[in-house]
Amino acid sequence: MLDKKYILENPEVVQKNCANRGVKADVNRYVELESQCRQIQQEIEELSRQANVVSKSIGQAKDDAERETRKEEGRTLREQKEAKQEQIDRLTAEAGAIYRSMPNLTHPDAPVGEEHHAREIRRGKTEVRKFSFPVVDHVAIAEQHDLIDFEGGARIAGNGFYFLKNEAALLELALQQYTMHFLVGEGFVPTITPDVARNEILQGVGFIPRGPETQIYSIENNDLNLVATAEITLGGLYSGEVLDREQLPLKLCGVSHCFRTEAGAAGRASRGLYRVHQFTKVEMFAFTLPDQSEEMHQHFCDLECKIFDGLGIPYRVIDTATGDLGGPAYRKFDLEAWMPGRGKNGEYGEVTSTSNCTDYQSRRLNIRYRVQGEKGTNLVHTLNGTAVAISRALIAILENYQQADGTVVVPEVLRKWIGKDRIGSSEE
User: Fold this and answer.
1) Can 425 be counted among the known catalytic residues?
2) Cβ-Cβ contacts under 8 Å for 73 (sequence gap 6 or more)
3) Beta strands in 156-246 (DSSP E)
4) How many CA atoms lie within 13 A of 174 on its CB side?
5) What quaternary structure, including any partners, is listed in this protein's UniProt entry (predicted)?
6) Above pLDDT 90, what percent of the chain?
7) 231 annotated as belonging to a binding site for a ligand
8) Computed from CA positions of residues 153, 156, 159, 160, in that sequence, does the dihedral angle turn out positive or negative?
């Protein structure tokens, strides 16, 4: 959430930001409600003062009649105070709903507009391959080599769930090992996070844990939810805590399963592993000083590029347009891998993203830092980035490395964990 003082002093700027991001939030109404609440609060404090004066005067009454009069006056003042409190509670609830709906401010270089206004800012080292044979998608490749069982997953848990089998299961584990080893070498603290989190943590990170618009699986009769990403658990790890300045920047990487309802998702673009209800992901997360976050954001983007350059996957990086930013993101870069089996002639599909959320999440989660020798504390900045979403990385590997004889070459960086150079070949 935004700084309330900033909103009250810059309502036009905040309203324009909401419009650029396609968010309906009546900022002027919020400012009006806050003003009314402050006025009513002053009236409540005055009524409390008067009630205290009357209460003290009851013992000084000359007779019973005067005593009863003063008691009645006190009751009237308390009733007026209670009525004012009910009024301020209603106004505060309305203001709070508007406040929580406001997205983060936006980086001035972010493209303004909808998804198609996004700007390409870089390409990977690997060129898009020109195939000399008809390309097939990852679903067909998986069927040929018994890699993924979608039907079995549907029988067990419903559509959108699946079994990874044989080399596909080994590829998932290899991608985790490859990515975690790489990130540890870059100074990240490795973690395996819980797959559940409380409502308050999801809300603090910026997810909607319950209600008709949620994409979250909630646990009945409990305030726990299955996490959609380790951003939730890593971001909530220091909720309510104060870090020392010397600890920052603090970089964590976490492995978790991710669960998403993906309500409304359908069509060929979502075929196979591209849009599923459960997958494994390695997530990056950082807590930084405010003046470190932009540099860290570029660093996260560079790391994602290095991971996919290492895998030999062609990709492009997109500076996400304002209308396609999530609420907490100040700026977001998407890495889209080339998937030759997607669409008629191949398409780019998002495989990672990284966002600078500035102090939007830390204000909600109350994560602060202290400077030795100074009074008070300040909000940290938070950043997240997908190092690898296994399901989509598998699509890119299977489709880009397919061969004319039906085999699939294993990326060189993964071979030590797979134990062979090709899938579908008896030669190791």
Assistant:
1) no
2) 54
3) 163-164, 189-192, 196-198, 224-226, 242-244
4) 21
5) Homodimer. The tRNA molecule binds across the dimer.
6) 84
7) yes
8) negative
Catalytic-residue membership of 350: yes
Least confident of 18-22, 207-211, 410-414: 207-211
Collapsing DSSP states into helix, strand and coil, what is residue 191?
A: strand
Residue 53 marked as a ligand binder: no
Cα–Cα dist 99/389, whole Å: 32
Choice among 42-51, 180-189, 248-257 with the minimum mean pLDDT: 42-51
The answer to whether the annotation marks 69 as part of a ligand binding site is no
Q: What percentage of the chain exceeds 70 in pLDDT? A: 95
Q: Is 114 a catalytic residue?
A: no
CA distance 31 to 94: 11
Do domains 4-101 and 115-423 share one topology? The answer is: no
pTM here? Answer: 0.92
| CA dist list (Å): 152 to 141, 145, 147, 278 | 17, 16, 12, 14
Q: Does the annotation flag 294 for ligand binding?
A: no
Stretch 194-221: mean pLDDT: 90
CB-CB neighbours of 386 under 10 Å: 26
One of 21, 275, 364, 422 is an active-site residue; which one? 275
| Rounded distance between C-alpha atoms, residue 309 and residue 428, angstroms | 24
Which helix (H) or strand (E) segment holds residue 30: the answer is helix 27-58
- Which numeric CATH code is attached to 4-101? 1.10.287.40
| Catalytic residue (one of 73, 271, 350, 370) | 350
CATH architecture of the region 115-423: 2-Layer Sandwich (3.30)
Say if residue 261 carries a ligand binding annotation.
yes
Q: Where are the domains of the chain?
A: 4-101, 115-423
Query: What DSSP state is assigned to residue 387?
Result: E
Angle (CA) 119-388-292 rounded to 5° is 65
Active site residue 392: yes
Q: Is 129 assigned a catalytic role?
A: no
Which is the catalytic residue, given 260, 331, 342, 363? 260
Query: Does residue 264 have a pLDDT over 60?
Result: no
Q: Is 116 annotated as ligand-binding? A: no
Q: From 387, 354, 421, select the one nearest 182 (Cα to Cα).
A: 387
pLDDT above 70 for 24: yes
186 labeled part of a ligand binding site? no
Are 116 and 136 in contact by the 8 Å Cβ rule? The answer is no
User: Both tokens of residue 64?
Assistant: 């019973």
For the chain, the distance separating the N- and C-terminal CA atoms, rounded to the nearest angstrom, is 54
Catalytic residue among 342, 392, 399, 422: 392
